[in-house]
Predict the structure.
Amino acid sequence: MKLMTCPLNGPRNISEFVFGGEVKPMPDPWTVNDREWVDYAIMDNNTAGVVREWWYHVPTAYWFIAERNTVTDEIVRTYKYDEVFKERRDFNRPPAAAESKSGDRS
């Protein structure tokens, strides 16, 4: 049985986790074009070696970061996301977009 250490719950069976993709900076959704957004949301670099990835512990709905060697599938370490993301990043809608799309999200 393969185990992964959840920073919140300790070692758990790997079947309790879901892969969430590579950790990468989120572009501003108000200024990025469709291709750049798809690259961010769907495309991964598929780097050979140790990469940072999002993982989700399903029973507790807890997101965290794991460093995993993609060649050996070894989990090097896991940690809370706030070790990487120190502050919340807000994306404000540009005034022109707010005026042209009034009635939808605000």
In short: The radius of gyration is 17 Å. The first strand starts at residue 3 and ends at 6.
